[in-house]
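Consortium newsletter contribution from the modelling node. Members have asked for a concrete example of what our holo predictions look like. Here is one, prepared for the D-xylitol-5-phosphate complex that several groups have been discussing at recent meetings.
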Amino acid sequence: MVKIAPSILSADFANLGSEIEEIKNAGADYVHFDVMDGAFVPNISIGIPVLKSVRKSTDMFIDVHLMIEKPVRYVKQFCSAGADLVNFHVEADSEENIKEAISIAKSMGKKTGVTLKPGTPAEAVMPFLPLVDLVLIMTVEPGFGGQSFMHDQLPKMEAVRKMIDEVNPACELEVDGGVDANTAPLCKKSGADVLVAGSAVFGKADRAAAIKAIKEA
Ligand code: DX5
Ligand code: ZN
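And here is the predicted structure:
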């Protein structure tokens, strides 16, 4: 069964604790935590202090998506603040520095992932694939919730699925952006294990029904 990671970017930040409790009870698998710095992407969201508070309020698995330049500068802080898994964009720094960020997170007992923007080819994961627990493929340009799913990313998903099966079969394939009950079946067919959904979960009054609809689509 595919896992669902609701993105709290679309949650009510004034009631974040109860929003997360609600998706936990509704059958969500991970909490997806989007960090934006206004430089790597044209938007600013939440960061380390919010992660600390969320960590105190829930025992759910927190999947942190760092949309920040040179994430190696902050990886320790995000790990100490309570991330369970930290995702690094391969475009955010040199290969050497992304590998350094992965190794710091691992040394702190955390899981790691690498993320690809829509314009980045599948092959870009290869240097990192043996090292990580997850590959995240963006199906929108990162920066905003509520955008339309980019169907042209499906062949890349299939290509990355193949690489994972050959190189690191324990690695999970996660998809983020425009995922709802209509696009979820395409992602599953292309090999996704984890689906991030922001507006398709938090935008709906009945979160349990929304999660069920995506899981069973
Ligand atoms: C976009 C974020 C996503 C976003 C997804 O930059 O990384 O996680 O919240 O939102 P939806 O599901 O609404 O496209
Ligand atoms: Zn995200």
